[in-house]
Automatic annotation (TrEMBL):
One of its GO terms (molecular function) is phosphoprotein phosphatase activity. Pfam families: Y_phosphatase3. It comes from Secundilactobacillus paracollinoides. Transmembrane segments: none annotated. This is Protein tyrosine phosphatase. It comes from the Bacteria.
Length: 265
């Protein structure tokens, strides 16, 4: 398996831009390089970053964010790249686009902490109709893209994007241990950003409880992943049932995805 450094794209105006290529599958094949990349928002990428994405072969930008998030920080879509808005939620349930004051007010109003909030968010990603529709359309885009690169993202590239990667890698037959490693890789890749945000909040007088909530909101977790897997088990039996029933992927769709995105090792 490639190193984290090899997996990261050189994007100066964004975080968590990384390849899904190179992962081995259970049937002895490998996910193709330069076919799918998972990222955070494109709102602050530079002109050079735009050209980097074009040179890499990106032709589709799938945005899982809510309209409110997009209004606040719209993507800088490279010229010639098709933009597709597929909101997983009506608003930013991950809270990653919100200020410290907004986070504190919302958690107080809901009488919960950041960790509890994220558990609910992951459950909703598995069970809500809007989420299903967004990921169904994501797979429709993947199935229609034969040679170029599909880029998909949310705000921080970790929750809505992370689960999109989980669904895709499962459909391609990547082992669960590898899928979970890719999901958790965000904590390593975004560690500096999270630490800076925590330091800033602490300097502004944030309580220890709020700091814990911010950390929970800006990181991924075994518990979040397991909440999603439990919801899949409880509602669909297993991942294959979820892909078929919730995301409407037929056995032929799965075979077509593998033909498009896998190569012999």
């Amino acid at each position: 398996m490639q190193t984290t450094k090899q997996r990261l794209l050189d994007i100066s105006g964004g975080i968590n831009f990384r390849e899904l290529g190179g992962y081995p599958t259970l049937d002895g094949r490998t996910v193709k390089w330069q076919r799918v990349i998972r990222t955070a928002s494109l709102a602050r990428i530079t002109d050079t970053d735009q050209q980097t994405l074009l040179n890499y072969g990106v032709t589709v930008d799938v945005d899982f964010r809510s309209q409110t998030e997009i209004n606040k920080e719209p993507d800088r879509v490279p010229t010639g790249v098709r933009y597709q808005h597929l909101p997983v939620f009506d608003d930013d349930k991950t809270e990653n686009s919100k200020t410290q004051a907004q986070i504190q007010a919302e958690l107080k109003a809901q009488a919960e902490n950041g960790f509890q909030h994220m558990l609910e968010t992951y459950h909703d990603m598995i069970t809500t109709t809007q989420s299903h529709i967004a990921y169904q359309q994501f797979f429709t885009t993947l199935l229609a893209t034969e040679d170029n690169v599909v880029l998909f993202h949310c705000t921080a590239g970790k929750d809505r994007t992370g689960m999109g990667a989980v669904f895709l890698l499962n459909a391609l037959g990547v082992p669960e241990t590898t899928i979970k490693q890719d999901y958790l890789l965000t904590n390593q890749v975004a560690a500096d950003l999270v630490n800076r945000r925590l330091a800033s909040a602490k300097a502004e007088g944030a309580s220890s409880q709020l700091l814990d909530s911010i950390k929970a909101l800006w990181r991924v977790s075994d518990a979040y992943y397991q909440t999603a897997m439990t919801a899949i088990h409880d509602n669909y039996g297993n991942m294959n049932g979820f892909l078929n029933q919730a995301l409407q992927l037929s056995p032929q769709d799965i075979a077509d995805l593998k033909a498009l995105y896998l190569t012999k090792a």
